[in-house]
Each structure stands twice: as C-alpha cells, then as structure tokens.
Design goal:
Elements: E1 7-14, H1 17-27, E2 31-38, E3 41-50, E4 59-64, E5 78-86, H2 90-99, E6 103-104, E7 108-110, E8 113-119, E9 125-131, E10 153-161, H3 164-173, E11 178-183, E12 186-190, E13 199-204, E14 217-225, H4 228-240, E15 249-250, E16 255-260, E17 266-271, H5 299-305
Parallel strand pairs: 1-4, 5-9, 10-13, 14-17
Antiparallel strand pairs: 1-14, 2-3, 3-4, 5-10, 6-8, 7-8, 8-9, 11-12, 12-13, 15-16, 16-17
Length: 315
C-alpha cells in the first residue's frame, strides 16, 4: 500500500468571504471548523469547511481574494472538485440547490455513480457524487441539511493535462498511485482501491492553454499521510524525481510539503494531525478567529484588516 491514503483537503480561491460562508455553510450545510488567515498573506481569511469533527478527507478550504480577477481553467489547475454524498440523496440535493438558485447541469453517471455538476457563486466547478463507500464522517447537528443527507467528504478532483503519460508515470512510480483505467475520456488514478476520497481523474487536453489562478479556481489538492516520518519518505522520492518539494512546513493543524506534479497542478502532502481541535474546543470549532502562535503578536492588525463574517450558519 502507498503511504498516501487519500485526499486530505482541497483548497480553492473565492471572492467575497461572506458569500462563500453563506453558500458552503448555509446552502451546502458544511461546518466552518476553522476561521483563520492565509499564513502567507494574513490580510485575508483562510476558511475551512468539513464534517462536524473536521476529519481529514472532509475538509474543503478557501482563500477569499475579493480583489482578484476570475481565474481561468486550463492545464496546471484542478478543473472540478467533487463532493461525496450518500447514495439515494441526489434528488434531495437537486431540489435544494434549485430552490437556492444554484447553477447546475444535468445529472450524469460516472463509473456507475450518479453525479450532479454544480457551479458555486464565485464560479468554482463542483460535483455532488453519490457513493456507498465507507467514509470517516460525523454529521453536524446544527447543519441546515438533515444528517442523513449531508456531504460526507471530498470525493475526488479532476484536472486537465497536456501530457497525460508524464503525469501518470509520476503518480504511479513516485507517489504509489494505481491506474484504474479510463471512462469517458477521464483516466482515474488512486490509492487504496481508488474509491471515494481516494482518487484523481485526469483528461489529456494538449491544445488547451495553461490555467490561471483567480476567483473560482482550485489552488491545490493535499494528499493525506499518517505522520511526518511518512511524509519525509514520500518527499524523498519526490525530490529524487526532481519535482523540487518544499521543506516540511508547520501549518499548526498539520505538517505540509508542497510540490508541482509534472503537468503543473500544485500538490501537497499533509499529515493526519494534530487536527483542528488542537487549539479549540471541538464543540466550538470555527466560532473565533484562530491564528497560529507565530501570528498572535499581529492579531490586532490582522483583525482590523479582515471584514466581519457574521454568523457561520442559519437554518
């Protein structure tokens, strides 16, 4: 088995932070488990949405860059983030999203699973995908969505590649992914069976220009490893493949290593822990602005630069 056990989190770029909170907390019913700042640019929030306990693999995060122009989908960016829902709940979600005026496409079938493509208010392409796979998930009692219909985690990410074999070789030979074949032009590579939360799907698009980060685009996908020792072992192989990984960076809730896969998509390795409860009571996650210890001295200036967010959810 590969040391990578699945998706840890996915981070995207959005516009207005309050609109983002309204959509992901109230409309999608996810819990805001951490309200912090971008550690590389503390003048903007970093918002983390997940299940009630903030399990790795359920965590979708956003950098709200309100002044940023819209991004452009293309080579080197993830082009869709898929969220897992329970089998049999897609009609509920279709009706709910229609009621809220959310842009949707027709339901489609992906490897036997029904999927509903969706676009969020800032242009981020999502898909709600039904799955019966086992997931580490705790329902959020205060969600606006019933417990048996809540989003249970991150299902997958899709990306376009100019040279599919180049990236495929890296995934299988360096990161330890398996090739699960092609369907409808999408090639699946995954770990531990490649099921829900454990795969990426790639499509070769040799004539598409490079994508551009901006509002409505995915920033990176983080892959889950058990601990720093495991992370360093994987990092050593990435370095030997000349992908120039960063040193281990302390993100306080997990330890991270960043690198570009051969097609240009930003990947991260992220450790299981210590987790979001290391600095907050689990019953009150996301209620206060939390800063890593090295930014606490700047709290007054940081708070003054951030817009108020308001309540994290409403029924």
């Amino acid at each position: 088995m590969t040391e990578i056990t699945g998706i840890h989190h996915i981070t995207a770029i959005c516009g207005d932070a309050r609109q983002n909170l309204e959509f992901y907390s109230r409309v999608l019913g996810m819990r805001l488990v951490k309200k912090s700042v971008n550690q590389d640019d503390p003048t903007t929030y970093h918002l983390f949405y997940a299940d009630a306990d903030g399990h790795p693999g359920t965590d979708l995060t956003f950098f709200p860059f309100q002044s940023s122009p819209p991004g452009r989908l293309g080579i080197g960016l993830g082009v869709e983030i898929a969220l897992a829902i329970r089998t049999g709940t897609l009609e509920y979600w279709q009706a709910r999203l229609s009621e809220h005026g959310v842009e949707m496409a027709a339901i489609e079938t992906r490897r036997g699973d029904r999927a509903l493509p969706v676009v969020d208010p800032h242009g981020q392409h999502l898909a709600l995908v039904e799955t019966s796979d086992a997931r580490a998930f705790t329902p959020w009692r205060e969600s606006s969505v019933p417990a048996d219909k809540q989003i249970v985690g991150l299902h997958a990410v899709r990306a376009w590649e100019r040279d599919l074999p180049l990236t495929a070789t890296f995934l299988t030979n360096v990161l330890g992914f398996s090739d699960y074949g092609e369907e409808g032009g999408w090639h699946r590579y995954g770990v531990d069976g490649g099921g829900s939360g454990k795969h990426i799907e790639l499509r070769e698009q040799p004539n598409v220009p490079r994508g551009m980060w901006g509002v409505g685009t995915m920033h990176h996908v983080a892959w889950r490893v058990a601990d720093v020792e495991t992370e360093l072992a994987v990092r050593a192989r990435i370095d030997a493949a000349h992908r120039r990984p960063t040193d281990v960076i302390d993100r306080f809730w997990f330890k991270s290593v960043y690198f570009l896969e051969p097609g240009g998509v930003l990947f991260e390795l992220a450790t299981e822990g210590p987790g979001f409860a290391v600095d907050e009571d689990p019953a009150h996650l996301g209620e206060q602005l939390v800063l890593p210890p090295w930014l606490e001295a700047q709290r007054s200036a940081i708070e003054a630069a951030l817009p108020p967010l308001g309540a994290a959810h409403r029924p």
